[in-house]
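Retro notes (design track)

What went well: tokenization of the new backbones is finally stable.
What didn't: we kept losing track of which sequence belonged to which structure.
Fix going forward: every design gets posted as structure first, then sequence, in one message. First example under the new rule, 425 residues:
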């Protein structure tokens, strides 16, 4: 179909179409607005519903909070009441304590005054005593000085009297040195005289002849060739006896000797005897007794009284030897009977035993045997071990079980331990 655009009808169609399109568009916009309004209304309803739920929750929470707040209020009221009661109670106690402290303070102040007064009095008394002692010390110093002067004069007079009585000539003070040199020997002259006297001593051959003459005169022993004992034999016997005497009387090493390194480790429960010990004196005034210690039993001095005396007849001695040795014997020495008072050696040990241990706390000891020291035998007696051991011991225990009748004390003069040093492998 051919449209005539120039015709008025075409314009009407165009206007109608535009109007229709406009109306349709308007309807579409209305529909969109309605949908938007519905959506918006739906959203508002959701929000209102949510707000309503929230309000309901808040109302419930408010009601619960009101009940909890009421309970808390009641608890707070109870706590406040308890605090008031406690405050009252402790206020009463504090008041009582203040009263008590006040009384104690008053009492302490009174005692402090009394103590201060007593201290002052004692201080004055001590000062008085101190001044008196100072005066006494000064006086004693003066007396001591005077005494020293008088003693010096007295000693000088006594020395002069003694020297004059010895030499029958009184020395003059001015020539005292010349007098001493004239009446006494000096060191060089003394040494010269000693050398001269030593030269005059008999020789070994002369000693042998003296022994032979003594045997002939006192024991009626004549040495003939038929007797089997020649002069050479006697000389050898005397030489060996002198050599043995020089070698500690035994000819064997003593590993308990203190000079070689032996020492006493313990005496156990043994009590040292004090009653017969000598006094320590000062200006001839006895002060206290000083007994010999146990280590004198490990020394070579056998002079009378040079022993370890212990109470009763039972004693114990733990000895550390100078070296670990294979022990094979012991020697016990006591004072010879002829050197004792009234020939009495009842204080000498009788029965004794010796054990070897590895260390002071060792409970497993080895017994070397039990022995007896005879009071009728020689002063130095040797004992061989009856139960030897292959172990080298450095510590021995000597246990004395009895003596020869003395009820008060026992004297141990010297104990020797013999053996052989183990060879180094």
């Amino acid at each position: 179909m051919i449209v005539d655009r120039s015709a008025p009808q075409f314009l009407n169609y165009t206007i109608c179409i535009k109007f229709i399109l406009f109306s349709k568009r308007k309807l579409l916009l209305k529909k969109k607005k309605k949908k938007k309004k519905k959506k918006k209304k739906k959203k508002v309803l959701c929000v209102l519903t949510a707000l309503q739920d929230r309000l309901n929750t808040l109302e419930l929470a408010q009601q619960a909070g009101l009940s909890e707040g009421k309970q808390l209020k009641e608890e707070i009221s109870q706590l406040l009441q308890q605090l008031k009661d406690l405050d009252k109670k402790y206020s009463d106690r504090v008041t009582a304590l203040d009263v008590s402290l006040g009384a104690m303070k008053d009492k302490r102040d009174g005692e402090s005054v009394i103590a201060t007064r007593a201290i002052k009095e004692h201080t004055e008394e001590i000062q008085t005593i101190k001044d008196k002692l100072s005066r006494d010390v000064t006086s004693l110093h003066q007396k001591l000085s005077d005494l020293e002067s008088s003693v010096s004069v007295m000693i000088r007079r006594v020395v002069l009297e003694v020297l004059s009585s010895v030499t029958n000539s009184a020395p003059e003070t001015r020539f005292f040195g010349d007098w001493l040199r004239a009446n006494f020997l000096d060191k060089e002259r003394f040494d010269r005289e000693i050398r001269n006297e030593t030269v005059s001593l008999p020789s070994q051959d002369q000693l042998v002849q003296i022994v032979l003459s003594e045997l002939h005169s006192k024991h009626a022993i004549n040495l003939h060739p038929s007797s089997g004992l020649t002069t050479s034999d006697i000389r050898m016997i005397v030489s060996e006896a002198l050599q043995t005497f020089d070698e500690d009387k035994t000819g064997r090493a003593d590993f308990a000797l203190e000079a070689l390194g032996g020492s006493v480790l313990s005496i156990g429960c043994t009590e040292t005897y004090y009653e017969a010990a000598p006094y320590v004196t000062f200006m001839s005034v006895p002060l206290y007794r000083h007994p010999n210690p146990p280590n004198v039993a490990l020394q070579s001095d056998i002079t009378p009284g040079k022993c370890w005396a212990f109470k009763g007849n039972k004693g114990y001695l733990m000895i550390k030897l100078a070296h670990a040795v294979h022990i094979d014997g012991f020697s016990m020495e006591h004072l010879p009977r002829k050197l004792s008072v009234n020939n009495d050696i009842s204080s000498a040990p009788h029965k004794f035993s010796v054990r070897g241990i590895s260390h002071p706390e060792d409970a497993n000891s080895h017994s070397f045997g039990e022995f007896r020291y005879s009071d009728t035998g020689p002063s130095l007696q040797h004992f061989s071990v009856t139960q030897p051991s292959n172990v080298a011991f450095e510590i021995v225990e000597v246990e004395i079980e009895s003596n020869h009748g003395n009820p008060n004390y026992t004297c141990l003069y010297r104990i020797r331990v013999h053996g052989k040093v183990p060879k180094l492998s």
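Added context from the reviewer: The first helix runs from residue 8 to 167.
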